[in-house]
Design goal:
It is a single chain. The chain contains six helices and 20 strands. The chain has 310 residues and is an alpha/beta fold. The chain has two domains: 183 residues, FAD/NAD(P)-binding domain (3-Layer(bba) Sandwich), CATH 3.50.50.60; 119 residues, FAD/NAD(P)-binding domain (3-Layer(bba) Sandwich), CATH 3.50.50. The strands form five sheets. Strands 1, 2, 3, 6, 7, 8, 9 and 20 form an eight-stranded mixed β-sheet that branches. A five-stranded parallel β-sheet has the order 11-18-12-13-14. A three-stranded antiparallel β-sheet has the order 15-16-17, with no helix packed on it. A hairpin with a 4-residue loop joins strand 16 and strand 17. The mean pLDDT is 96. Bound molecules: NADP nicotinamide-adenine-dinucleotide phosphate. The site of NADP nicotinamide-adenine-dinucleotide phosphate has 18 residues, from helix 4.
C-alpha cells in the first residue's frame, strides 16, 4: 500500500461539483487531488445532452462536458486519479483517504461523490440487470432499436430518458405511481407530444419476467385495482437516487432521512476541514449549475480553512 505525499485538499468525486472545486482550489495554488471511481463528469456523463447549462445555447453532450471539466481542472494544476475511495478517517487534524492501491493524506476534504441510481427492489430487477434491466438510457438505449421498453418513474430523469429512448425503441411505456408527474412542465410536454410514448399513470411495476432476458412486466393499475401483463424487451428505472456516502464510514456527519449530507452555507460540515458539494448534500435543487456553484463555494471555504483555520 503506497503512502503518498500529503495534499492540501482531496476531492472525492469527479463530477461538476468535484472538478469545479478542483479548479478553484488549484487556481488558489493549493495542492489538489481529485479521486474519481469511474468516469469524468459523474452522472452527467451518462446523460446524452445537457440542455440547461447556461452558456451552451445548443446544449452540450454529457461526456464532452465531463471531459472539459477535467481538462480545465488539470490546466490549473489539479491532479486526477481514477480510484475508488474506500474510507476517510481523521487523525490529528489531518485526513487519511484510503483507496484500494494507495493511502493519501490531506488537510481538507471535499466530498463531492454525487449519487447512484436507486433500485426499486421488485422481483426480476436484480436477476435481469444487464439482460434488459438498465439504469442508463444513454449507455444502453441503442440495444433497444425497434424494440419495446418500459421506463419507471415520474421525475425529470424518467421523462427526459423516456423521450430519449424513442430514438431507438418502437414503443416506450412510461409507468408512474401517481396520476401526475413530478418532472418540470417542459419535459412533460415533450413526453405528451411524443407518439411513441404511452403513459401508464397511477400504475406500479410489480415484477419483471422472462426466460434469459426481459420479456414482460406485470403492472398494477392502482385506480382500478387490476393487474396486467405488458410484453417488453427492456426496463429502465428512474426512481430517484441514493447519495454516495459509504466512504465516509462512521464519521459523525449530519444526514437527512434520505442519507444526504447536511452542510452550512459555506458547504462546511460539523467536522472541521470536511466540506461537501453537489448532489450528495441536502439541497433544494440538484442540477449541474447548482453542483458547480457548490464546488466553487466548497473550494473557497476549504482554502480559507487551510489558511486561516476557519
Ligand atoms: P426524482 O426527482 O427523485 O424522481 C424520482 C421519481 O421516482 C418520482 O417520480 C417518484 O415518484 C418515483 N419513485 C420513487 N420511489 C418510487 C417507488 N418506490 N416506486 C415507484 N416510483 C417511485 O429523481 P430524478 O428524476 O432522478 O431526478 C433527481 C434530481 O436530478 C432532481 O433534482 C431532478 O430535477 C434532477 N434532474 C434534472 C434533469 C434536468 O434538468 N434535465 C434531468 C434529470 C434529473 P413520486 O413523484 O410519486 O414521488
Amino acid at each position: 500500500m503506497a503512502q503518498k505525499d500529503p495534499y492540501d485538499i482531496i476531492i472525492v468525486g469527479g463530477g461538476p461539483a468535484g472538478y469545479t472545486a478542483a479548479q478553484y482550489a488549484a487556481r488558489a495554488e493549493k495542492k489538489v487531488l481529485v479521486l474519481e471511481k469511474m468516469l469524468s463528469g459523474g452522472q452527467i456523463a451518462s446523460s446524452e445532452m445537457l440542455e440547461n447549462y447556461p452558456g451552451f445555447p445548443e446544449g452540450i453532450g454529457g461526456i464532452e462536458f465531463g471531459q472539459l471539466l477535467e481538462k480545465q481542472a488539470r490546466r490549473f494544476g489539479a491532479q486526477i486519479s481514477m480510484e475508488e475511495v474506500q474510507g476517510v478517517s481523521l487523525t490529528g487534524g489531518s485526513f487519511k483517504v484510503q483507496t484500494k492501491k494507495n493511502t493519501y493524506t490531506s488537510g481538507a476534504i471535499i466530498a463531492a461523490a454525487g449519487v447512484n441510481p436507486r433500485y426499486l427492489g421488485v422481483p426480476g430487477e436484480e436477476e435481469f440487470r444487464g439482460r434488459g434491466v438498465s439504469y442508463c438510457a444513454t449507455c444502453d438505449g441503442a440495444f433497444f432499436r425497434d424494440k419495446d421498453v418500459v421506463v419507471v418513474g415520474g421525475g425529470d430523469a424518467a421523462l427526459e430518458e423516456a423521450v430519449y429512448l424513442t430514438r431507438f425503441a418502437r414503443k416506450v411505456a412510461l409507468v408512474h405511481r401517481r396520476d401526475r408527474f413530478r418532472a418540470v412542465k417542459y419535459l412533460q410536454e415533450k413526453a405528451y407530444a411524443n407518439e411513441k410514448v404511452t403513459l401508464y399513470l397511477s400504475h406500479i411495476l410489480l415484477e419483471i419476467g422472462g426466460q434469459n432476458k426481459v420479456e414482460r412486466v406485470v403492472l398494477k393499475d392502482l385506480a382500478r385495482g387490476e393487474e396486467k401483463v405488458v410484453p417488453t424487451d427492456g426496463v429502465f428505472f428512474y426512481v430517484g437516487n441514493n447519495p454516495n456516502t459509504s466512504f465516509l464510514g462512521d464519521l459523525p456527519l449530519k444526514k437527512n432521512s434520505g442519507g444526504f449530507l447536511e452542510a452550512g452555507d459555506n458547504m462546511e460540515t460539523d467536522i472541521p476541514g470536511l466540506f461537501v458539494a453537489g448532489d450528495i448534500r441536502v439541497t433544494p435543487l440538484r442540477q449541474v449549475v447548482t453542483a458547480v456553484s457548490d464546488g466553487a463555494v466548497a473550494a473557497v471555504s476549504a482554502v480559507k480553512y487551510l489558511e486561516e483555520g476557519e
